[in-house]
Task: inverse folding
């Protein structure tokens, strides 16, 4: 049986691809120079595990924020400062390769690629674009059962214990370097360090001009609700079909629902990767051509560096 969904179903694997042009257009920065720069960027298709959507799916939403994990075909890239080593991975059967012989997890149906791993601490946030034709959910799509999701968490428990032990050791070494009363976590030290670190939103608000922030809020480009320009186009088309039809209230309704469903306008939304997604992974990926998670991170950095926020929008 095939079901049609507004957004992809969680606990499934999917192919995703960054869409720089859509990121530009979604922000309303659709001048030709910016679009040409976005088209110049080359992007790859990645294998991802869809953990859980970060907002409720609603009709006419442009995209949905989603928490995902990027799947790799290699052991994890070590991160010595975080206590992460290369063996902190879980193979996906039929892959059974692991330095310590760790048991793999099993998908339903069997996974089509023989060389894939889940990495520890490899979560990412993306915005998955919706489609008019929706996403089709059927039994042939690879997913993790509830039991295997628990197994995945259990496999990583040993690694989290090692990471915890690493940070405890680092803390003990740091405290040993300070005489009593002068340690960084002592009351005297804490009292002198009350300044909060600026958030990404704070920094971006300083970067973006007041003009752009006002435009973005008025046009509704900071949330997944239909933007006002889309609503205006929709109302225009409806009016031409039926001049007696009442004005659409979708835009105001969407605004009212934003706060309720966790879609409060956020100026950092434009920095969240906007991707296309496909549930049939074998139609879009080959086992010998699955890119590394690090490559997606590089693509996102390159997209942001292209200057989505045109100079005319930047604060001076």
Result:
């Amino acid at each position: 049986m095939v079901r049609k969904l507004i957004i992809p179903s969680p606990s499934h694997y999917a192919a995703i691809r960054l869409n720089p042009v859509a990121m530009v257009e979604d922000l309303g920065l659709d001048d030709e120079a910016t679009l040409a720069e976005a088209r110049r960027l080359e992007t790859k298709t990645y294998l991802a595990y869809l953990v859980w959507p970060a907002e409720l799916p609603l009709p006419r939403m442009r995209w949905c924020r989603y928490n995902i994990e990027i799947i790799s075909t290699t052991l994890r890239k070590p991160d010595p400062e975080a206590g992460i080593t290369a063996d902190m991975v879980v193979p996906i059967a039929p892959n059974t390769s692991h330095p310590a012989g760790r048991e793999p997890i099993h998908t339903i149906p069997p996974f089509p690629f023989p060389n894939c791993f889940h990495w520890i601490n490899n979560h990412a946030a993306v915005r998955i674009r919706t489609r008019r034709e929706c996403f089709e959910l059927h039994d042939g799509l690879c997913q993790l059962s509830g039991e295997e999701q628990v197994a995945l968490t259990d496999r990583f428990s040993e690694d989290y214990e090692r990471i915890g032990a690493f940070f405890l050791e680092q803390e003990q070494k740091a405290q040993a370097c300070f005489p009593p009363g002068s340690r960084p976590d002592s009351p005297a030290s804490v009292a002198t360090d009350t300044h909060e670190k600026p958030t990404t939103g704070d920094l971006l608000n300083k970067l973006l001009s007041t003009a752009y922030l006002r435009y973005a809020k008025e046009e509704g480009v900071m949330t997944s609700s239909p933007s006002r320009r889309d609503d205006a186009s929709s109302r225009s088309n409806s009016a031409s079909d039926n001049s007696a039809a009442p004005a659409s209230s979708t835009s105001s309704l969407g605004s009212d629902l934003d706060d309720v469903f966790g879609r409060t306008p956020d100026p950092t939304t434009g920095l969240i990767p906007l991707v296309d997604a496909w549930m049939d992974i074998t139609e879009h990926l080959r086992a010998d051509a699955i890119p590394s998670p690090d490559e997606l991170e590089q693509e996102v950095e390159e997209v942001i560096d292209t200057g989505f926020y045109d100079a005319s929008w930047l604060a001076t």
